[in-house]
Specification:
Elements: H1 12-17, H2 34-47, E1 62-67, H3 73-84, E2 88-92, H4 95-98, H5 107-114, E3 120-125, H6 128-134, E4 142-147, H7 153-167, E5 174-178, H8 186-198, E6 201-206, H9 214-222, E7 226-231, H10 235-241, E8 247-250, H11 260-269, H12 277-287, E9 292-295, H13 316-335
Parallel strand pairs: 1-2, 1-3, 3-4, 5-6, 5-8, 6-7, 8-9
Helix pairs in contact: 2-13, 3-13, 5-6, 7-8, 7-13
The structure holds phosphoric acid mono(formamide)ester.
């Protein structure tokens, strides 16, 4: 048996170091190599048995969550990840009114100030340009919890990790990102960038009216992503195209419910993208494939048939559980153990 000199048991410290995350922000998944992301997934698997019971990798460390937009999943799962790592959390769920930004403090100064109290910051903000201009203020690593319309990398991370745990590989995998408004689908684009970094193939389905932002197409190009784009498909053609892929991702809608005009426009445009259980069963009969339906959630009842909830095709509620161990690995990697 010819074994390399390095042959020895894994340690979580070495695995986290191999991610290259320590001291860096988490902004786009393509900022990290395939090997670094693979190490992060393996660290996630090492941590997974403890995602409920916890392990003390971040004792005395503090996470600050600064969320300028509403959130349930991203904020709670990032916070519980730090708590399950033995650390503590400072949570600002409405900084627009309850932090000193309400008195005119700049985002840059806010990040610099909070850096005194925290070892890592998770920030959600509606304006990516303002964030990118302000990150210089931070003195600790910053996790994007969703910035503007372009990036939501920890959502992408948990989605790619779900594919990794479900299928164990990316080569030969084809995933569809389907949205009536790809100009604002930050979760879908983050998932696409992560899949591209890992070597999976992408099929984008959208409308020519609301194209993918150039910031994303440039990153996909730089990652040598294999991408097919279909625009303005009929409902029937969209459902038929599901037979081309292994999973279909719906990035959801972040239009506030108290903006009825914008919401009505969204609900109208999304009609050709409605996925039925019957269509998925038809694809299974034709190809033998169980096309997984993924969604960043929260969902709207016009997006897909809720009968999928209790079927083999449902991945959207399973994705959520994987978000905790992979965010635990991310935080531990960025802070360092
Ligand atoms: N998927 C997602 O970002 O959900 P929240 O808005 O609830 O965080």
């Amino acid at each position: 048996m010819a074994l390399p000199k390095s042959f020895s048991p894994f340690t979580i410290k070495e695995k986290l170091e191999a991610t290259g995350l320590k001291g860096r922000n988490f902004e786009f998944m393509t900022d990290y190599s395939k090997e670094q992301l693979q190490s992060l997934f393996e660290a996630g698997e090492m941590i997974e048995p403890y995602w409920r019971s916890g392990l003390d990798l971040m004792k005395q460390k503090v996470l600050a969550t600064l969320f300028f937009q509403p959130s349930t999943r991203t904020r709670f799962s990032t916070e519980v990840a730090m708590i399950r790592l033995g650390g503590s959390v400072l949570s600002e769920s409405n900084p627009t009114t309850s932090s000193s930004t309400a008195k005119g403090e700049s985002l840059s100064d806010y990040l610099r100030t909070v850096s005194n109290y925290a070892d890592v910051i998770a920030l959600r903000h509606p304006d990516d340009k303002e964030v990118f201009a302000s990150l210089k203020g931070a003195r600790v690593p910053v996790i994007s919890g969703g910035w503007g319309n372009v990036t939501h990398p920890t959502q992408g991370l948990l989605d790619v990790y779900t594919v990794y745990r479900a299928l164990g590989r990316f080569e030969g995998i084809k995933v569809m990102i389907a949205s009536s408004d790809l100009s604002r689908a930050r979760s879908g684009h983050s998932f696409a960038l992560g899949l591209a970094a890992m070597g999976a193939e992408l099929v984008y389905v959208g409308s020519s009216e609301n194209a993918i932002p150039s910031a994303i197409t440039e990153k996909l190009k730089a990652a040598n992503a294999k991408v097919t784009v279909y625009n303005d498909l009929s409902h029937e053609a969209f459902l038929d195209s599901l037979s081309e892929v292994d999973a279909c991702y719906l990035p959801g809608c972040s239009v506030p419910k108290d903006d009825p005009a914008a919401r009505a426009a969204f609900l109208d445009k999304i009609k050709p993208f409605y996925i039925t259980l019957e269509a998925l069963e038809k694809v299974r009969r034709k190809t033998g494939k169980v096309v997984g339906i993924m969604h960043s959630l929260p969902r709207n009842d016009v997006e897909f048939d809720y009968a999928i909830d209790d079927s083999d095709f449902q991945l959207y509620f399973r994705q959520m559980a994987f978000s905790v161990p992979i965010r635990m690995a991310l935080i531990a990697g960025m802070v360092g153990v």
